[in-house]
Write a structure and sequence with these properties.
354 residues, ornithine cyclodeaminase, domain 1, 35% helix, ODC_Mu_crystall, NAD(P)-bd_dom_sf
């Protein structure tokens, strides 16, 4: 039998643990796994692109556990009443190949993306950062707001979206959260207005195109940029001149994948970037001065889903009431008799019933 985590289980966990604490604890798992960077067998995700979106598989293993995630990204889905992103994943035991956990990852991906953003910002942003521009107020925005408030102490959110209804939705959801009662919400009329005076700019837009959401004149000394929305070929959010500035320090998750999908797809292949694992392991500094501009070019990497699945497996192991199982793998008296142990037994039961 294989442990199973569905949407209802995630909802129960978040209600019990709290979204902020869940993401903070997940961030600790992320950081621990990034410290073990050399232990992982890594590859860029396998992507199938179409004119309307992308479907991807994201595998990784540390030799003891293996995981993969299936995920799509279809920005126009919302016009049909569908989600832009859906996902599920598997955690498996390398020694037997048996799956240990099958889990939804649609909600969990939103949680791990925000947890990773806030973790990177803890290393890269100025410690006194208290104001964040949140540009793109769709499905990921609440998670980013909660994670940055919880983990970095953000006290002001400057909100902008081309769709005013998205900002209204975000404002309503954040106002309903008691843990965010001390946060100031400022609705801006443009991305530039949202960015003005912010310590951190987070972009989480969904259009599959080379967009220019943040321009060079919006950048101020000491800012931290958390670019989340540019996560596939031909999809970016930052003006290329920002990336070429000498005072911008760029950190990525896994360089071979980010060169294809991240903001740095706009740069030459030999342009200098830093992998986040080198930051947490002390090989590279995340920020060299308070005036330097830092950029986390986030595309989402398989290690982060591995960490999320590992964390979920631990959580449900501590909560027997949530430990549901499914018969994904046959249990046989004779492991060499798959036909007789599955189809043969079923046919015998049907004959007896007749």
């Amino acid at each position: 039998m294989v442990d199973y985590v569905g949407i209802a289980d995630i909802q129960h966990l978040i209600e019990e643990v709290g979204a902020g604490e869940f993401m903070e604890r997940l961030a600790a798992h992320l950081e621990a796994d990034y410290r073990r960077w050399s232990a992982f067998e890594k590859s860029a995700r396998l992507a199938s692109h179409s004119s309307v979106g992308v479907i991807e598989l994201m595998p990784i293993s540390d030799g003891g556990l293996y995981s993969f995630k299936y995920v799509n990204g279809h920005p126009k889905n919302t016009s049909q009443g569908l989600l832009t992103v859906t996902a599920f994943g598997v955690l498996a035991d390398v020694s037997t190949g048996y799956p240990l956990l099958l889990s939804e990852l649609t909600v969990t991906t939103a949680l791990r993306t925000a947890a990773m953003s806030a973790l990177a910002a803890k290393w890269m942003a100025r410690p006194d950062s208290r104001s964040m521009a949140l540009i793109g107020n769709g499905a990921q925005s609440e998670f980013q707001a909660i994670a940055f408030h919880r983990m970095l102490g953000i006290r002001e959110l400057r909100l902008y979206d081309v769709d005013p209804q998205a900002t209204a939705k975000l404002t309503q959801n954040l106002r309903a959260m008691p843990e965010l009662r001390d946060i100031s919400l400022v609705r801006a009329n443009s991305a530039a207005e949202a960015a003005r005076g912010a310590d951190i700019i987070t972009t989480v837009t969904a259009d599959k195109r080379n967009a220019v959401i943040v321009t060079p004149e919006m950048i101020e000394p000491g800012m931290h940029l958390n670019a989340v929305g540019g996560d596939c070929p031909g999809k970016t959010e930052l003006h290329v001149d920002i990336l070429k500035r000498q005072d911008v320090r760029i950190v990525v998750e896994y360089e071979p994948q980010s060169r294809i999908e991240g903001e740095i797809q706009q740069l030459a292949s030999d342009s200098p970037v830093i992998e986040f694992a080198d930051v947490v392991n002390g090989v590279q500094s995340a920020r060299r001065s308070t005036e330097e501009i830092t950029l986390f070019d986030s595309v989402g990497f398989a290690l982060e889903d591995y960490s999320a699945l590992r964390f979920l497996h631990e959580l449900i192991g501590e909560r027997p009431e949530l430990c549901r199982q499914i018969d994904l793998v046959p249990e046989l008296d004779d492991p060499k008799d798959l036909f007789g142990g599955t189809l043969g037994k079923r046919r015998a039961r049907m004959r007896r019933a007749a």
